[in-house]
Every structure is written in structure tokens, then in C-alpha cells.
Write a structure and sequence with these properties.
59% helix; mainly alpha; 9 helices; Leucine-rich Repeat Variant; single chain; globular
Length: 153
């Protein structure tokens, strides 16, 4: 019988839910209507618990599983998934790094809050572009993103 590590990860993660902390996180990450984190949901899981769960599962996760988890509606699931992707990326050959990078960019809309960007951007696209070519970086740098139109420098 094959173990579904994606489901095991979600089950382990749900054990650490804290309702009061989840409400606090929703406020900090501005998840109300018309705020930049609108639509994000939290389970209230402490970062230390998230990191330990990610370390436990990263070597068992497929790229397909991580893509599905990255699209999860719970913020902490996406955070853990990015930790897993970073670990996968560190140990990957160039071909797998390209696949991880492509998957990251395909799912960029789910990397939708400052903590997710701060965690992953330097370690996946930043590293990839630094090691290969910076031309795509400039296209993303010109993107207006959530902060609207930028002034010309």
C-alpha cells in the first residue's frame, strides 16, 4: 500500500491548529475584503511547527504533490510547501531546478503575501535567475503586482 504523504502532511499540520492565533494572523496578513491578503485562511500554526513538518516530509513529496499543496487555500500549507520546494531545489540537478522554477512561476498567484515571497523568492527564482539569466527577472520586476502602478525611476 502506497502512503499518501500529501494527506499525511495535512493531517500532521492540522494537529497544530490554534484558533486564537489564526484570528491574529488573519488580521496581520490583512485578509479582509479589499485588503492585499483577501481570501487567505489560517489555521494558526506556529512557524516552528511548520518548519519541523516540512523537514519531516520534503524528501517524500513529488513535484505534482507540491504543486497541489501550493494551491491550497490555507496559508500555512502554502508556507510549508515553499519550504519543501526550497529543499527540493537545493538538492536538485539543473533539469529538476528548471521544473521547480516553471512550477513556481505557474503558481505565482498563490505566493500572495509578504512572508511567502520573502521565504521563497531569493531561494528559487532569485537563485535560478542569478545562476542562468537575468532577462526574465526584469520582466517580473516591471510587473505592477499588488501595489499598483509604480513611479518611473
Amino acid at each position: 500500500m502506497r502512503i499518501d504523504f500529501k494527506q499525511e502532511l495535512l493531517k500532521d499540520l492540522s494537529i497544530h491548529k490554534e484558533e486564537v492565533f489564526a484570528k491574529y494572523q488573519a488580521k496581520v496578513f490583512q485578509t479582509q475584503r479589499e485588503e492585499y491578503g483577501e481570501g487567505d485562511f489560517f489555521w494558526g500554526i506556529r512557524v516552528l511547527n511548520q518548519r519541523s513538518i516540512a523537514v519531516k516530509y520534503y524528501k517524500y513529496m513529488s513535484l505534482k504533490d507540491t504543486e497541489e499543496l501550493l494551491q491550497h487555500n490555507i496559508h500555512e500549507v502554502r508556507f510549508i510547501t515553499l519550504i519543501i520546494l526550497i529543499e527540493m531545489y537545493k538538492k536538485a540537478n539543473n533539469s529538476l531546478r528548471l521544473n521547480i522554477m516553471q512550477m513556481y512561476l505557474r503558481n505565482f498567484k498563490y505566493i500572495n503575501n509578504w512572508d511567502l515571497v520573502d521565504l521563497s523568492a531569493p531561494r528559487i527564482p532569485g537563485h535560478y535567475w542569478y545562476e542562468s539569466s537575468l532577462k526574465d527577472l526584469w520582466r517580473y520586476a516591471r510587473d505592477q503586482g499588488i501595489f499598483g502602478k509604480r513611479e518611473q525611476l
